[in-house]
Amino acid sequence: MSECPFENILKGSLSALYYGDKNFLDTIDKMDFTNVRLEFMSELFSIMSPEEFYNVNDLLHSEQYLLYAEAVSHAIMAVSKKLADIAVFAQANADGVSKH
């Protein structure tokens, strides 16, 4: 079971909201998230067991998952033109315009 940086998860969520605000990001890096981390863990583990969480967390940080994510991204890019054509067709039909 690997160690999961719960505090980094919490700080990361705030950083995503305030991306680009260096003063804010520097401030939260210096803050103590102990109480929030403990409540977060309590909520998280009320839905799934710690073992389930760590198993998924380990998978998401594995080389196997990186390969999976790369393969899915590559495959989506390979069919992006066809997906765009489907989106155009669906939008045309949604607008009441039949396009063949």
Task: Provide a concise account of the structure shown.
This protein is an all-alpha fold and 100 residues long.
> What global shape is seen?
extended
Given the structure, what is the number of helices?
A: 6
Query: What is the percent of helical residues?
Result: over 70%
Q: Regions with pLDDT < 50 over 5+ consecutive residues?
A: none
Measured on Cα atoms, how large is the radius of gyration?
A: 21 Å
Number of strands: 0
- Order of SSEs: HHHHHH
Strand content: under 5%
How many structural domains are formed by the residues?
Answer: 2
Largest sheet: none
Task: Describe the model.
- The protein is mostly helical and 100 residues long.
- The protein has two domains: 1-49, no CATH class; 62-100, no CATH class.
- The protein is 77% helix and 0% strand.
- The chain is built from six helices and no strands.
- The chain has helices spanning 6-17, 22-30, 34-47, 50-60, 63-78, 80-94.
- It starts with 5 loop residues before the first helix and ends in a 6-residue tail after the last helix.
SSE layout and pairing:
Elements (H helix, E strand, L loop, with lengths): L5 H12 L4 H9 L3 H14 L2 H11 L2 H16 L1 H15 L6
Features:
100 residues; extended
